[in-house]
Amino acid sequence: MQARTEPWLSRWSWLVLLAAAAAPALGLRVGLWHAPVVLETALYGVAVVSAAFILTWTAEAAEHDISQALALAVLALIAVLPEYAVDLTFAWKAGEDPRYAQYAAANMTGGNRLLVGLGWSTIVLIFFIRSRHTLLELARSHQLELTFLGLATLYSFLLPLKASISLLDSLVLIALFIAYLWLAARHPAEEPELMGPAKVIGSLPKRRRRPVLVLLFAFAAGIILASAEPFAEGLVHTGTELGIDEFLLVQWVAPLASEAPEFIAASLMAWRMRAAAGMGALISSKVNQWTLLIGGLPIAFAISGRSLAPLPLDARQVEEVFLTAAQSLFAVAVLLGLAISLAEGLLLAVLFITQAALPTQTIADVLSWLWLDGLAARLPEAVAEEPVRWAFAFLYLVCAAFVFWRQRRFFRQPWRAWFGEAVVAEADLDAEAIAGRAMPSEARPHRRR
Predict the structure, then answer these.
(1) Could you list the residue range(s) of the whole structural domain that residue 177 is in?
(2) 52 falls in which pLDDT band (50, 70, 90)?
(3) Which residue stretches of 187-341 are H helix?
C-alpha cells in the first residue's frame, strides 16, 4: 500500500481518472450513444488529451527497460497514429478517386510543417518560461534522430523533381525508418528520474511492470485510433460551416487535431522540466513522419488502386513538398550543434505562421502589401506571379545555408559518434579556454552562444 505522505499526483487514481475521461468517446465510437457534432468533437478531444497524458507517463516509465531513444521513438510513433490514420485514408481513397491525391499530400506536408514550425518552437518557449534559459541543449543520443532526419530530408528533395511518390521511394524511406528503430533499440537503458504516475509504474517489479507498460501503450494507442479521425472530422465539419476553404482545412485543421497527442505529450514533458526529452519526442515524430508516413502513402495508393503507379503530385503539391523539405533542412541546420535557442525557435514559428497566413498569394501580392510595388514591377512577370510558397522555400534554404556555415565545426559530430569516438567539438575546447575553466567531456555544452 502506498504511504499516506505520497503526493496525490503519484497515485494510480490519475490513470483511472484519465481512462474514465476517455470512456464517453469510446461509447460514441462504438455507437452506444449519440450527441451533437460540437459535443462529440469536444469529447473526442478530451479522449485524445487523456491518451497523451497516459502516453507521456508510460514512455517515461519505459525508460527503466529500454533506452530513452527507443522509448521516445515508441511514444512518437503511437502519438502520431492519428496523423497516419487520416493521411493513409486520403491515400487509400486516392486509389479510387484521383482528386483525393492532393489531400493526402496536403495533410502530410501540413502535418510536417506544423510539427517543426509550432511544435519545436512551443517546446523551446515552455523551456524558457520554466527555466529562464534561452538555449535548450539536447543529449548526444539525439544525434541518432538528427542523422536520419538529415538523410530523409536530402532524399525528400527528389520527390518534387519527380512530381510523384513511388513504391521505390517507399522502400528507401521505410528502410531508413527501420534502421533508425534498430539503432535506437541498441542504446543502453538508463535509470530515469521519475515523478507522478510514471514513478508509480516504474516502481513496479519488472515482471509486473513490463505487462503494465504494454497494456498502457496499447490502451493509449486504441484511444487515439478510435478518437482521432472523428475528432479531426468534427473540426473540419465545424470549419466548413464557418466557410473555411476545404483544402486549407485538410492541410492545417485536420493535422493540428490529429497531431494534438504528440504536441500535448511533448509539452507535458517540457513543463515538467524534461524539455530535452520533449524535444527529442518531437524530433523522433518528425523522423517517422518524414520516412514511414511518406513511405506508406504510395503503398496505400497502390493497394487501393490495384496498380503500381506512383502517387502523383500536382503543381501545388510539388511546391508544398519542396517547401516542407526546405523547412526540414533548416531544422536540421539549427540542431546540428545539438541545441536550439529561443531566437531560433521563434524564427521557426514566425516563418511558419507567416507562410501559413499567405496560402494563395503571389510574390507580387506580398511585395505590394509591403509597399514595395516598385520592386514588384521590376521583377520578371514569371517570378512575380509565382506563389509566395517558392519565396519562403528559398528563404528557408538561405537560412539553412547560413546556419550550416556558422555551425560547420559540428558537421563531424554525427559521423564520429557512429564510429564510437568521443563527440567533443573543437569549439567547446575553445570556449573552455576562453572561460578559463575545464569541464568533463560529458558535461560540456554542445553549443555556446
Answers:
(1) 10-317
(2) confident
(3) 197-202, 206-241, 246-248, 254-258, 260-271, 275-288, 294-305, 315-334
